[in-house]
Structures are given as C-alpha cells and as structure tokens.
Amino acid sequence: MLDPRLFRQNPEAIAGALSIRGYDLDLDTYRDLEKARRDLQTEMESLQHERNIVSREIGRAKRSGEEIEPLVSAVGDLGLRLEVIRTEFNKVHEELQGYLLTIPNIPDDSVPVGETDEDNRELYRWGDVTEFSFEPKDHVDIAGDSLDFEASVRIAGSRFSVLRGPLARLHRGLIQLMLDIHTDEHGYEELYVPYIANRESLTATGQLPKFEDDVFFVSSEVDSFLIPTAEVPVTNMVRDQILDANDLPLKYVCHTPCFRRESGSHGKDTRGLIRLHQFEKVELVQVTHPDRSWVALDEIVNHAETVLKRLELPFRAVSLCGGDLGFASAKTIDLEVWLPGFDRYREVSSCSNFLDFQARRAQARFRPAPQTRPELVHTLNGSGLAIGRVLIAIMENYQDSQGRVHIPDALIPYMHGVQYLEFES
RNA sequence: GGAGGGGUGGCUGAGUGGACGAAAGCACUGGUCUUGAAAACCAGCGAGGUUUAGGCCUCCCAGGGUUCGAAUCCCUGCCCCUCCGCCA
After folding, report:
1. Which tens digits make up the pLDDT trace of A232-273?
2. How do strand A365-367 and strand A242-244 relate by DSSP bridges?
3. Are A389 and A280 a contacting pair, CB within 8 Å?
4. By the 8 A CB rule, do A313 and A269 touch?
C-alpha cells in the first residue's frame, strides 16, 4: 500500500508515477472517498467528544452524590446520531481502504519504460550460450520415462509432474545445494514454514485482494490459501512486529513448494516442467532498514547469481520494465538462464525491492532508536532459485550426443558421486 | 473430538461499570552518586489518526450488543494454555 499521506498531498503525482506501469489511477473515485472519509471522521469525532464530556460529568456528579437525571436526559439522541454517523463512516472507510489495497507500488525512477517483457532492459550476460555438435533435445525428450506425466495427470491433472529415480534425486540435490550456499556462504537463516497461509498474510504481501484467481483457495471452512511462493509465509514473519534496529537486516532462506493456478496462461508453456501448478523454489527474503534496501537488492541478485555460476549455467540479468513489474514491486531484476531446448533465456529468479509497500500492509516496523517512534521496514525477496527450471537448465545444457546428462561439479557430492545420468525412453 | 482456564503496552502482569490508555515489575533512555562500571536512588518511557498550535479522537484479540458511560457486562468468531481421547 502507498503512503496515504503522500496520497492526500499529491494524488496527481502518484497517478503520473503509476502510469509508467500502465496503471490508470481513478482520481475521482479516490477524491470522493477521501473527502467523504474526512467529513465523516470530523463529524464523528466531534460527537464523540461531546459524549465523552457529558459522560465524564455524569460520573463526577454521581461520585459527589448530585442528581444525575438532568444530565442524562440532556444527552438526548446523541448516541443515536453518533451511531448513524459511525455506520456511515465505517462503510466509507472500508471502501477507501479496499480501494487503496488494489493500487500497485510506484516504480523506481530507474525502471525502464515499457509494456511487455520485450521492453525489459538486459543488464549483462554471464557465460557463453551452450553450443552443441548435434541437435540438442529439450528436457522432456531427454528425461524419457523419468518424467512421468501420465502418472501426474492421473493423480492430479494437467500441469503437475512426477519425477522418478535419479531425476527426483537431482531435483532434491538442487534444493540442498542452494540451501547450503545461502546459509553457509551468504548468512541467511533457514526457515521451515506453513504451506497454507491466511487472508491477512496474502493481503500483506500483495497477492490479495486483487489476484485471488491466481492462488488456490483451501476451503470455505478455513479462509486460507496454498502459498504461491515462500515470500508469503516468510515475509509475514514480521507482520505486526516492532523490530529492534540492531536486529536488521533479517535474512531468511526457505525452500517450499509453490502453488499457482496459472489462470490466464492457457496454452502457454504447456510442455514439460516450465509452468506447473506446483513447483519447488528456494526463496531469499530480506527485511532491512529503509536506507539499506537498494544495497540489499544488489546483494540478493548477487546471491542468486552465485548459484547459477556454481552450476556453470549461462544466464543474463534483466531489469523489468514498468508494464512487466509485479504489483508490489518498486523494481525487479530477473535472472534468466539459457535453455537450449527453448533456444532462449527463461526466468529462474525474480529479485524485487518492495520498499515499504508490503511493510505498510503488514505493519512491519522497527524502532530506529530507543524512545523513538516505530518506522516501516523495507522488504525484499528473490528466488535463489526456482528448482524445476534449473533442473530443466541442467538437463538441456549438460546433455551429450548419447542422451546422457552430465552432473555439474558442484552437484556431484549431492548425487553420491554420480557423474552423469542416463535415461530410458 | 470432550471438559475446563485464558487473550491487557517491547515483555511479565494487576485491573469485574465512571477518577483507566491502564498499577507494579522487567527492558530501555536521561540524571544523581562513582576514578570507571555495577548497585542504589530520581525522572522519563505504548500504538495510530487528526490539527498551524493548544488540543481532539481511536485502540486492552476481532466483530456485534447493553449503557449517558465498557479493558470490565452479554453474544459470536479467532487464537493460546491445561487435562482426557485420537494420531505421524
């Protein structure tokens, strides 16, 4: 959520800034609601003031044994009027809050102008695009029976996966490798968290109220959702907390499955592991002092890159343009790995600085110094990395002419020393 | 699932209709004392909204209700604890 004070001061400036991401702010709706809110609040508070004075007077009179009847009858229909105003105020206030919750974050000045991912700005590349002396296959063809979609369809439906044997182990090894790198080398605390989160948590991070169609609802009895990313449970570690300034930054790493409806992506990426309803991800989350969040973003990008470099996978970094930016993000750097089977780079990490946007929704604050008022923290996260897509990258980049997949050196210890995988088809 | 007890400031915890945004303690901040520190003593110290300011308003888990007036009484929900049952 954006700062309501900023909103009151200069809504036109906010509208202008939001147009960079192609968002059309409805200034009239805002102004009408805000004016109604202000008028009702003023009236409500002056009625409350009146009531408090009389009630206090009645209390005083009663203690000193005076007659209170005249005072009580003088109150008249004050309570009734107050009730009417309060009901009206609650309605308007709720409506205004609801509206503000649907407004996205303001993009940082450095965010490229543009509408689609074609307008994203490439920042740099690492490694050379893999060359083959034969026609490379895509991961589905390479994996053969080890990727059992017949089973996953039977069990759950389309857009799920069953991995078998060595492929399942490679998948698990990737998770372990990434967690080890981020805990041992980058100083993150590892968390294990719930895979179901409530409405408040998803509202805090920004998935709700606007993107309810993208997440799996658990049931009408428990108003909760399957997490679309570890960002939700992990960022909510600090919801409604007042942190000590000395404890910042908080750095968390967490492996979870991610569940996404992928509504609106019908027909897109339907082959293989590229876009599923359930996939694994190792997520990095930082909670920082407001002065440090831009430094932290570079840090997270760097931490995510370390994994790709360790696996010796060619990748590039891109800065998302305004139109491609996520709802809550002020700036996002994506890492895209080279996939020979797709003949293009594909996203394996998305690193974002949310500034105080999530923190305000979550009321996540810190005390800058003793005796001072709490201030909002900044929150950031980045994938470190998406497991399924890295698995694809390893299969496709490390395939040989005999259909085998060589294991990157960094992963060999996690594979019991196995150097390559052979698949049956 | 059954029975009982709870939810109060950063933390512990008192408060059962008016003098309570709230005792006391801890933590924290400032001061006195001390060569310095500790201890002791004194003082300060919840969050949010609104206002040029003084101020005003709200908040004692959440939502309703009773009342001139609710942390306190009533209803509903959520959460926690104890015991029993079940269970990886």
Report:
1. 999 999 888 888 888 889 999 999 999 999 988 888 899 999
2. parallel
3. no
4. no
Cβ of A8 < 7 Å from strand B?
yes
Nucleotide nearest to A241 (CA to C1'): B10
C-alpha torsion angle, residues A114, A119, A125, A129 (rounded to 10): 160
Task: Work out the angle at residue A37's Cα, subtended by the Cα atoms of residues A33 and A39, and round it to the nearest 5 degrees.
Answer: 120
Contacts of A238 (CB under 8 A, 6+ apart): A250, A287, A359, A362, A364, A377, A379
Mind listing the pLDDT tens digit for each residue in A145-173?
999 999 999 999 999 999 999 999 999 99
Instruction: List CB contacts of A383: < 8 A, sequence separation 6 or more.
Output: A281, A282, A283, A284, A304, A348, A349, A350, A351
Which residue blocks in A64-111 are alpha helix, DSSP H? 69-75, 78-100
Instruction: Of A283, A297, A392, A263, give the one whose Cα is nearest residue A338.
Output: A392
The answer to whether the C-beta of A5 is closer than 7 A to strand B is yes
Q: What's the Å distance between residue A290 CA and nucleotide B55 C1'?
A: 32
Q: Note whether A198 and A218 are within 8 A (CB).
A: no
Residue A175, burial from CB neighbour count under 10 angstroms (0-12, 13-18, 19+): middle
Residue nearest to nucleotide B19 (CA to C1'): A60
Distance A370 CA to B35 C1' (A): 29
Catalytic: A260?
yes
The single-letter code of the amino acid at A337 is V
A374 touches strand B (CB under 7 A): yes
The residue among A346, A350, A336 whose CA lies nearest residue A384 is: A350
Residue A3 token pair: 């700062």
Is the CB of A73 within 7 Å of strand B? Answer: no
Q: Which residues contact A73 (CB under 8 A, 6 or more apart)?
A: none
Q: Is strand B within 7 Å of residue A75 (CB)?
A: yes
For the stretch A263-288, pLDDT in tens is: 888 888 999 999 999 999 999 999 99
Distance (Å) from CA A398 to C1' B62? 55
